[in-house]
Structure formats: structure tokens, C-alpha cells
Specification:
Layout: H1 10-27, E1 46-48, H2 55-62, E2 70-76, H3 83-95, E3 98-104, E4 108-109, E5 112-113, H4 118-129, E6 138-142, H5 158-175, E7 179-187, H6 199-209, E8 219-223, H7 244-252, E9 259-263, H8 273-289, E10 293-296, H9 321-328, H10 369-377, E11 382-388, E12 391-398, H11 401-406, E13 419-428, E14 432-433, E15 441-447, E16 450-458, E17 468-469, E18 475-482, H12 485-488, E19 497-498
Parallel strand pairs: 1-2, 2-3, 3-6, 6-7, 7-8, 8-9, 9-10, 12-13
Antiparallel strand pairs: 4-5, 11-12, 11-19, 13-18, 14-17, 15-16, 15-18
Length: 499
């Protein structure tokens, strides 16, 4: 959209621009960054729930006996991205002083969960990035027990998972620095077989694929069950114990990370109630004394018939032996960093936006200054002149999550510009697709101001399963032009972009 208007003098023009800049400074908010949960008072008590409707009962359990700001972990499927439902969940969590941990899942197909994909993560990051969370840290667990084939499309593929972990870190952090990535949540009791990998072998293959992969987890999610048969005593140590996370981290020789025990618990049918109560009390003392343990979320609050042996609440609504034991544990008052402004932000608006950079004021040759004032107010990408190789071009700058998600979708052409330039805050391997596109494009992948890869003539797609496009190396910019533009202008690897 082009805005045309007249100003009486150059002084009026300057006055408008200065006023606009001051408005942006006054109303912009600083980017939220995650914090180490070990640096604030913490109520480590938590519980695993399977439905948002269980939040109220979960709050009574995790905040019992002197507790405040306990945790819940809850799975979300790709088919369950209902903004009204999940924003209501976040609002209730804040009201009841509960810290949510969201576990991303795939779609179940019979007895097997589908393999995770980068495109799923883009959609999840966009969706979860738009919600108003109760605290600054937005805890995300990347999938579940991926060393079991039934949890990963019928195969065990640590290399694929490691690749997704790296991309997930960049994808989520672009939407909000507050996203706190957790994983890998392995089944520590699995052997090496045709359908599974032991935790050590799985972790070893992840590290062999990328020695830095574990730096992309902000915290460690562990399923530290008392095995074998979920009935081992508290005093047992090692990988198959309530302190299994220690063996995982020790094996990898990682620096201490915030630890989230996102699943644990005993089989209540194999242990006497009195013994079980003692197990929970002794285990709680161990977890409480470990400064790296941030949260313990036993599985599961209401397990139904499938998970009845672990369920903390029985069918009649009363606590089971484990449930009563967890309720009785002495808890503390947590003091997480609350998002005070969340209530003032309308639903559907991301509480975190990248800092305002005003790139069009940096280029004295820019011809879009006044139009860009209104573009910013309307949330549209600003326009700017640029030079690629020796070619002067005009581009729209896509610089935040909403603009990245929208891209060129829904448009009939590029309008009066040569293309759209996506600008990211950090280098990564992004995933693009042609969802809702009406014309084919070239994708020119740029890192450090130089062209590093070119995808020519990405076609308009109408199938349900859309192909995705990524560069061969990490980039921080992508220029989308009409199809054929790169070849017509002899754009090549190494050509430089100037803004």
C-alpha cells in the first residue's frame, strides 16, 4: 500500500519524523531473555498432566503444604493449536501460580508417533510465541523418548533428532529469547535392539553427529525412573534410578545444567503404601538437596486405565498412595520472574518483538522514509534500497516473527519492489515452504552479506505435503525474488549485498 500526502515544509517533515522516533522509543519494549531458574527461589514440585482441564487439580497438588509456583508439564499435538484454549490455559496458570512446561509431540498413527519435522517446529514456534506466558521463561520439551522407535515414526534416528534440535533452537529463539529448550527426555531403561537404542548409545550418536548439539539445550530433561520395573528402591543409583540424570550428564561430561525430571514414579501395584510413602520422602530429600534440580514432575496426575499404576489421582477423585505422598511433601515458595505486562497484551500479539532498528534511516539513498512511518504503524515490512552485486534493488524487510511467518504468502506479485529480504538475528539453517503462495520465486540465501546458495524457481504447491527449502550452510538473510530473477541478473555464489 502506498501512502501519498503533503507537508508544508521541510521543518514539518523533520518534526513528523522526530515525533515518530520518540513514539517508537516510548512504546517499544525490551526483548525478554531467559534466566537460569537456579538463580531464583524455586518450588521443585510438579506433575505431568495430559489435558488442560486438569490444571486446577494439578495446582492444588504442586502448591500444597507450603508450596507456591510449582510446575506442570503437558503435551501439545500439531492438531491441538487452538489459540483460545491455550491462552486460557496460560492465564489460568498465572492465576493459580503454576509454571507450564510444554512438551511438543507429533501425531499418533496407530501405536506409533510420527517422526518430527522442522516444519512442525516452525508452526509450533509461531503458535506458542503468540501466547502470553505467565513467566519470562517459556519451557519447551522437544518430543518424547526418541530412542524408542514407536516414538519416532517406527525408526530410531539420533542424527535426525540432533539436526532438529539445532534448528529448533534457532527457530524458537527467533520468536522469543525467553524460550527455554529442554531435552532429550530419553527412556533410560531401553536396550540396544532393532526397535530401540540405549540412552548411552543414542547420546553418543547425537554427539558424533554434532559435538556441539547439547549446547542447544538450555536445560536437561530426564525421565529418571526407579528401574527395573519402576520399583527399585531410592538408594539405587546409576542410569536406571531416580538420579538417572546424573549418569546422563556425567557420561557426556557436560557442565551442570538446570535439570528438569519430567517423568518419574513407582508402580503402585508392586509396593506397599507405607513403603511407597517412604520412597517419595527419601527421594524428595535427594532432589531438594541437589542445587541443579529445578523441577520434578511425576508421571502422571490422572492416568486412566493406560497409566493406572502411576496415576496420582484415582478414578473416584481421591489421591492414590503416590498422590497422597506427593501432596504431603514439604514444599517451598517459588519466585519466578513474572511477565507483568502479559495481561495488557491482546490475545494474538506476541509479547516479545525484536528491537526496533529503523534500518531505513541508515541509508541516505532510501526513498521510502515517510511511507515507512505508516508501514511500521500498520505492522507491515518497511522498504529499503539495497545493492546486490552491482544491481540497485528495492526490498521489503521482513524482520520479526509475524512478518517471517507471513512472508509473500497471499500476494499476487511483488508490487513495486524487487523482492522481500528476510533478516534474522542469528545464523541458522531456516526452513521455508510455498504455503499459500500464488507465484513462483527464487530464494537467494545470504550469510555475512554474501550469497552462499541459490534456490531457483520454487514452484507454487497445492498438495497437502509441501516440500521445504533450506540453504546448504547457516545464513542470516534470505532474499526472495520472482522466479528467474537470479539467473537473469547472473547472481552467483559470493556476490555481495549492501544495505
Amino acid at each position: 500500500m502506498r501512502f501519498v500526502f503533503k507537508l508544508r515544509s521541510l521543518r514539518d517533515c523533520r518534526r513528523v519524523i522526530v515525533t515518530f522516533v520518540l513514539m517508537m522509543l516510548l512504546f517499544s519494549t525490551p526483548a525478554r531473555a531467559l534466566y537460569d531458574p537456579r538463580t531464583v527461589p524455586t518450588n521443585k514440585a510438579g506433575v505431568h498432566i495430559l489435558s488442560t482441564s486438569e490444571l486446577s487439580d494439578a495446582a492444588k497438588l504442586v502448591n500444597s503444604n507450603g508450596g507456591d509456583w510449582g510446575y506442570v508439564i503437558i503435551p501439545i499435538q500439531p492438531t491441538d493449536r487452538d489459540k483460545a484454549k491455550w491462552q486460557s490455559f496460560m492465564a489460568e496458570a498465572k492465576e493459580k501460580h503454576v509454571i507450564p512446561i510444554i512438551r511438543i509431540t507429533t501425531i499418533p498413527r496407530g501405536g506409533t508417533w510420527a517422526t518430527g519435522h522442522d516444519t512442525d517446529l516452525v508452526d509450533f514456534a509461531n503458535f506458542l510465541g503468540e501466547l502470553n506466558w505467565p513467566i519470562e521463561n517459556r519451557y519447551i520439551v522437544l518430543f518424547n523418548e526418541v530412542n524408542r522407535s514407536t516414538e519416532w515414526g517406527g525408526t530410531v534416528d539420533p542424527e535426525k533428532y540432533a539436526s532438529i534440535v539445532k534448528n529448533a533452537y534457532a527457530i524458537f529463539k527467533e520468536r522469543s529469547e525467553g524460550f527455554f529448550m529442554l531435552g532429550p527426555s530419553l527412556d533410560l531403561a531401553l536396550p540396544n535392539s532393532s526397535t530401540s537404542l540405549s540412552a548411552q548409545n543414542y547420546l553418543s550418536r547425537m554427539r558424533s553427529f554434532d559435538p556441539l548439539v547439547f549446547t542447544f539445550f538450555d536445560g536437561w530433561s530426564s525421565h529418571s525412573y526407579p528401574n527395573p520395573a519402576f520399583s527399585a528402591p531410592v538408594k539405587k543409583t546409576g542410569l536406571q534410578s531416580i538420579v538417572g540424570y546424573k549418569s546422563e550428564l556425567s557420561y557426556l561430561k557436560l557442565a551442570p545444567k538446570p535439570v528438569f525430571i519430567t517423568e518419574t514414579g513407582w508402580d503402585q501395584t508392586k509396593i506397599k503404601d507405607s513403603v511407597l510413602a517412604g520412597y517419595w520422602s527419601s527421594a524428595w530429600e535427594i532432589w531438594q538437596s541437589d542445587i541443579n534440580v529445578v523441577a520434578v514432575t511425576p508421571f502422571v496426575l490422572q492416568g486412566g486405565e493406560q497409566f493406572k499404576i502411576f496415576s496420582l489421582v484415582k478414578d473416584d477423585g481421591n489421591y492414590s498412595a503416590s498422590g497422597q505422598s506427593v501432596y504431603n511433601l514439604p514444599k517451598s515458595k517459588g519466585s519466578p520472574k513474572i511477565v507483568e505486562s502479559a495481561a495488557k497484551t491482546s490475545v494474538g500479539t506476541s509479547p516479545k518483538q525484536p528491537k526496533w532498528t529503523m534500518p531505513f534511516f541508515k541509508n541516505s539513498k532510501a526513498v521510502y522514509k515517510l511511507e515507512n512511518i505508516f508501514r511500521v504503524l500498520l505492522g507491515l515490512p518497511v522498504k529499503q534500497s539495497a545493492t546486490l552485486k552491482d544491481i540497485n534493488i528495492s526490498v521489503e524487510l521482513s524482520q520479526n516473527a509475524k512478518q517471517w511467518e507471513k512472508g509473500l504468502s497471499g500476494r499476487v506479485d511483488l508490487g513495486d519492489t524487487d523482492g522481500m529480504l528476510f533478516v534474522f538475528p542469528q545464523y541458522h539453517i531456516p526452513v521455508f515452504w510455498m504455503k499459500d503462495m500464488n507465484f513462483p520465486i527464487d530464494m537467494i540465501w545470504i550469510a555475512g552479506g554474501k550469497v552462499v546458495d541459490i534456490t531457483s524457481d520454487a514452484k507454487v504447491e497445492t498438495s497437502d505435503k509441501l516440500p521445504t527449502y533450506s540453504p546448504v550452510v547457516p545464513v542470516n538473510m534470505i532474499l526472495e525474488t520472482r522466479a528467474g530473477w537470479a539467473q537473469e541478473n547472473n547472481i552467483a555464489i559470493g556476490d555481495e549485498l549492501y544495505l
